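anyone seen this seq b4? input:
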Amino acid sequence: MRNPIRLKNLSLRFAPVYLAGILVLAFVEVSWRGFWLGMPPLLAGLVLRGWGAGHLIKNERFAITGPYAYVRHPLYLGTALVAVGFASMLGGWPTIAVLVMMAAWFFLRYFPRKERIESQRLEARYGQVYRDYREQVPALLPKLEPWRLASVGAERVETNTRWSAACYDENNELGTLLAASAGICLFALRASLG
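predicted toks r here
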């Protein structure tokens, strides 16, 4: 089992984010109502991330099973749901302010760059199979029917894969789960203090 604490997440470049989180928790009143309203999207995000991480072998296999059959970026979607959950716990105007800031950063800066880089890498490796996948599977809003690989190019893609605890571990999803659990505990503590 890998160490779930990723040192890159403890670097100084994240200091402003951690400081903002501490200030928000210190000065924004968290109610139990807000806490419980935020839990469903937060838990849904963690489940989606865990499901996706268990199917992903980065740089070795084109993931098209599990949640990848419904949405191209289940880890990003899961992270967004976790963020919506935590923001919802704040309640009122702080929720709106945090959601607007996060959405602006995610949709204007982070996601377009990641989508471009990942798409170029996958298209270079899998060609027409990836182009078909990208055309038919939405980036962030899951479709109802799973995507099925056409026979053309199928020999280059491993399709009979199941969720794997080894993949979950290799993708450091335990670290994400632990960080979210710590956040949940902090919000619960803040709600109990009133």
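The mean pLDDT is 88. The radius of gyration is 18 Å. kinda curious what u guys think
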